[in-house]
Amino acid sequence: MLVSGTLLLLVFFGLIVAVLDSAFRSAALEAERDLLDSRMIMLLAAAEPADGNTLVLPADLPEPLFGSPGSGLYGALVRRGDGPVWRSDSAIGIDIPWGAAPATGERSFRRIELADGTPLLALSMGIDWEFPDATVHSYIVHVAAGLDSLNAQVASFRRQLLVWFGLVAALLLASLALLLRWLLRPLAQIESEITEIEAGERPAMSAGYPAELAGVARNLNQLIDSERARAERHRRTLQDLAHSLKTPLAAMHSLLDGEAERDALAEQVGRMEEIVRYQLAKPLVGTGATLGTEPVPVAPELGKLADGLQKVYRDRGLRCELDVEPGLRFYGDRGDLLELAGNLMENAHKWGESRVRVTATRAADGVSPRQGLVLTVEDDGPGIPDGGENSLLERGRRLDETKPGQGIGLSVVVELADAYRGGVEVGRSNLGGARVTVRLPPG
Length: 443
Fold this sequence. Notes:
- By secondary structure, the chain is of the alpha+beta class.
- Among the domains are: 152 residues, Beta-Lactamase; 146 residues, 2-Layer Sandwich (Heat Shock Protein 90).
- The chain is 47% helix and 20% strand.
- The strands form 4 sheets. The protein has a 5-stranded antiparallel sheet.
- Strand 3 and strand 4 form a beta hairpin.
- Helix 6 packs parallel to helix 7.
- The longest helix has 45 residues.
């Protein structure tokens, strides 16, 4: 707004300066014309009839510039049809092109140029002079002056005009900047609070906005509250459903008698539990962090996952190495983070021989107040066969059917990454096994 106002102000000030400059130049030209006219009247007043019915002018005129060669003020008296009867001493050696003679009683004001290109303003007037013997003769009186005085006045006026208009423009722009800063302060506050809400540092918009913006802040708070309540209801419903399904499955485990039957049915029940968990997680995949929700610290959550998996696979003797960037936070749902990291880390523990390495760093774009996440999980297992990287990400696809599972863990990871506008990369780790990297941009 300030830049646009400045450009508009410069345009209008430029037009005003141009108009004033043109008006002043016209007024200065008119003043020069009046000055030449007064000098012409002075010449006529000094003229006297002489013998032979001829007008003559005295050597000493009231205007001394007429008698100074090269003074820039010139005069001439011409008898119509006979030629000049008088020329000022200032015009000695100068051929002045007076132009067409005006009719009797008329004045002619024009711009002329000397042979060397020097511009002059000239005023001519035709008169009829009646002599004592009642004879009448026609004369033309010429006066001319250089433009140095006019140009000096115009240049001085322009300098003053630019200086004063520059000062006025600077004062006006400073006042406009202060006014805009004061008037737009509530908008700046809204921007700041929305940034804090996106970063999870503020739960809602504050109160006390002007009437024009109070409705905006109120509607944003209602949106935040409704979104938070909707996500909480969704989460509780799914938790209740999961709990109700887990209980019958646990009862089925306890009712098995034979060892062979128990192993066979346990495998199927395990697969059922994994499918149920996957299907229950799908509605919440990528719901992200509700506005006003605090971001999730990554290090504690990965630490808890690592401790739990170490207990589950303690007979394998695996060592899990965590390398998490200090202060790293996940801007999304805590369950999404656990689903992402849990599936990758569980696969690594399942396939690793002795080592699992988990690395988490931030990904920032310098624009969003949030952080992105780069999560890499590696193992020292057999790795991925050549050409199997893409097929491994397909839902239900397993490269080794001897390992338990339905092959849907990585598909959940892919769906979550897509929901957060990220991606999944699969390759070979320098540990010797597989490496899976999830990149989630700031959002």
